[in-house]
Amino acid sequence: MQHLFRSIPALDKLLKTDQGEQLILKFGHQAVVKQIRVLLTQIRQEIHQTHTLPDICQSDEQLLAQVREQLSQQTNVAIKQVFNLTGTVLHTNLGRGLWSENAIQAATQAMKHNVALEFDIEAGKRSHRDHYISQLLSQITGAEAACIVNNNAAAVLLILATFAQGKEVIISRGELIEIGGAFRIPDIMQQAGCKLVEVGTTNRTHLKDYRNAITENTAFLMKVHTSNYQIQGFTASVSEEELVALGKEFNLPVISDLGSGSLVNMQALNLPAEPMVQDKVLSGVDLISFSGDKLLGGPQAGIIVGKKSLISQLQQHPLKRVLRCDKVILSGLEATLRQYLFPEQLTRSLPTLQLLTQTLDELKQKAEQLKACLCKRLDSRYILQIEPSLAQIGSGALPTEQIPSIAVTISSENQRDLLELEQQFKNYPNPMITRISQQKMWLDLRSVGQFNELLEMLNRKC
Hints:
Structural class: alpha/beta
Strand content: 15-25%
Helix content: 40-55%
């Protein structure tokens, strides 16, 4: 045993080799020393267990090559690019929507340079960081002003904390939604220090329910778009227009949480209908909140549009600084919003809308290319077909609506073969994320961005 331990090369000796000096130049002395020590400890443990000298100790070059590989792996980003073949276009677990080229360029410039974030160039003095986007959103939505925070949950929290702390908020029981793993309207109200007043029943709420609940301690009336579920059958709800009229009668503002929030008529794009922010502004709603990274097609952000006097109070609240966005997000968001000034170009300029509006013929052509590539890669155990599929928007938008799509399906007599193949796809340099259903693997073409990059990767594998 002592002879085996003496065969382990010394740390100083390894550092003084040509290979060791090259590692220090590339990774730095501290990192190289730390990694060598880790590897030498592992070697000693293996000798204790096996009473043999590990093969890696046959030469200093072999040992240092492993050190280089381990240090190189440490530089790799764990959040890696994947190909979304699930059929869910806005997949929350896969980062939701893709940024447009304009947004990427704007964000990149903000990373590389100083920008006029809180500086009015013409006036030569300090400005507000939401100033440019507020003007832009006013132009697009018709609202008087806007406030930007880091996501829509933050937008709701800021509104509640600013206007309803210690007061009551009236909301229909059927709109007490839960989004994701932790966003619940009642919980957000509790965190904001306000009291929830539920009215109506799960399936039916009437205007008189709101009216009867109003007290001198009521802060505002609230509507929440139930974007992630639907109640069907014997139902009734109160429109924003009705609530606005009631709010004016009692001098109470009306707040609307739209969730996804669309700035374009989805039906005009042959997609399922979704409430438009512009329509809520026209109906007189005082404040409207929605997301930037869902149907809008931009970076993650929470957007609040509405009355200038109310937006001003939001901007002055201490929580705004906690929840604000940085220059990169704001630059990407502005670039995304500017594309809405050219609505006829949106299905080409915004990846989210481009993916959602692809024709079945376009998807079938992609499916044929993907199938041909996979046929070279897979052996006779697998049967590949091109089949109709049903995709979805995702991220809580239109949960019961499905969009016709095309998929390459892979089946096998042995279900274990599919599970092994799924793992192979996940082990690719850029993993392919698919879904398994009906004893088949489905590679849905509706949701995949950067399709040419996918083919290039598979061709290299072939």
